[in-house]
TrEMBL record:
Protein's gene: LOC110796683
Topology versus the membrane: Multi-pass membrane protein
Keywords: Membrane, Transmembrane, Transmembrane helix
Bilayer-crossing regions: 45-64, 76-98, 104-124, 136-156, 181-201, 213-234, 249-270, 277-297, 303-321
Family listed: Belongs to the drug/metabolite transporter (DMT) superfamily. Plant drug/metabolite exporter (P-DME) (TC 2.A.7.4) family.
Domain EamA: start-end pairs: 16-154, 185-320
A single GO molecular function term of this UniProt record: transmembrane transporter activity
Matching InterPro entries: EamA_dom (IPR000620), EmrE-like (IPR037185), WAT1-related (IPR030184)
Pfam families in the record: EamA
Cell compartments where the protein resides: Membrane
Protein name: WAT1-related protein
Length: 350
């Protein structure tokens, strides 16, 4: 029993690491498909539609077994808002921003998500912020350190430590900036705010809807319909809706399986179990994962800035995790103390 409890306790940690790996792969693969000419609007509609079709048999199976969730107007309204914020608006901004800039900039600006989420969670009283408490101090400091480390990895390279390809003269620049780089960065910043808002809303919805697959199915269904209505208007060229390259099909299938089905399901579960701040704590790890994947599979060089930034991200990440664990222990101790106090008060004096 102790072994099983340890495994279940480590499950959120393991699945969130996998989610960040999946998202880094998706950003790179979608960018490759868009470079080949695939419209970002077409990509969003197709992969969400495919993911919804994959989820449909599971949803119907739950209904036939009598395990379906009773749908209320409140739930349907929340599903509609989730689809609007988390798919329609967020993904249009995200993939348009990536198309105008790069996955590297997307990963860097994505580190604004923990900041936005933490602020919203504190405002909505979903997180406790008491700067006199060591756990709150650890979470605040860890978030700042992790984000700072992610920006160091992205914006500063420094001298190469491991050279696999010839270093270029512009090693201290982020990237050569394309014509719509600024607009892409603005859209990615809006994406971060939408993602934080979506996480807060999804946490509240997950508490009302106990079945993750039902939530994700309707979330994807509404998002697909909304994004299709917008994309048909924005992408009127019928030729753009025809897939011409194998990489486009691979990107759509990969996104449908790993994002619409897997990521959305486990994120919903983690949001219910751990809360929105815990989920977005892992976001700065995307920079480290992107660096490791580039070093291992793309022959990229390893620079001093990457090492320094990665150490800072790791330190900040563990600081937040420690703060979460300390806060949980403090709440448990307070609950036990209140229980013992009430028992003592109810015990008659002899």
């Amino acid at each position: 029993m102790s072994w099983m409890s340890k495994v279940m306790g480590a499950a959120p940690f393991m699945v969130m690491i996998i989610v960040e790996c999946v998202e880094v792969g998706l950003s790179t693969l979608s960018k490759a498909a868009m470079v080949k000419g695939m419209s970002n609007f077409v990509f969003i509609v197709y992969y969400n539609a495919l993911g919804t079709l994959i989820l449909l048999p599971v949803f119907l199976y739950n209904i036939f077994r009598g395990k379906g969730v009773r749908l209320t107007f409140s739930l349907l309204y929340k599903f509609f808002l989730l689809g609007l914020i988390g798919i329609c608006l967020l993904q249009i901004c995200a993939y348009t921003g990536i198309n105008y800039s790069s996955p590297t900039l997307a990963a860097a600006i994505g580190n604004l998500i923990p900041v936005f989420t933490f602020i919203l969670a504190v405002i909505l009283r979903m997180e406790i912020l008491d700067l006199r408490n060591p756990s709150s101090q650890a979470k605040c400091i860890g978030t700042i350190v992790a984000i700072s480390g992610a920006m160091v990895v992205t914006l500063y390279k420094g001298p190469p430590l491991i050279t696999q390809t010839p270093s270029d003269a512009s090693s201290n620049k982020l990237l050569s900036m394309p014509s719509k780089w600024t607009l892409g960065g603005l859209l990615l910043a809006i994406t971060s705010l939408l993602s934080s808002t979506g996480n807060i809303l999804q946490t509240a919805t997950a508490k009302e809807c106990p079945d993750e697959l039902t939530l994700v199915f309707f979330y994807s269904l509404f998002g697909t319909l909304q994004s299709a209505a917008v994309s048909i208007f924005l992408e009127s060229d019928s030729n753009k809706w025809v897939l011409h390259h194998k990489i486009e099909i691979i990107a759509i299938v990969y996104a449908a399986v790993t994002t619409t089905v897997f990521r959305n399901t486990v994120i919903t579960w983690c949001l219910r179990e751990k809360g929105p701040v815990y989920v977005v704590t892992y976001k700065p790890l995307a920079i480290v994962i992107a660096m490791i994947m580039g070093l291992a599979f793309l022959g990229d060089n390893l620079y001093l800035g990457s090492v320094v930034g990665s150490v800072a991200i790791t330190a900040g990440f563990y600081s937040v995790i420690w703060g979460q664990a300390r806060e949980k222990d403090d709440l448990a101790a307070k609950s036990i103390g209140k229980l013992e106090s009430s028992c003592n008060q109810s015990t008659p004096l002899l």
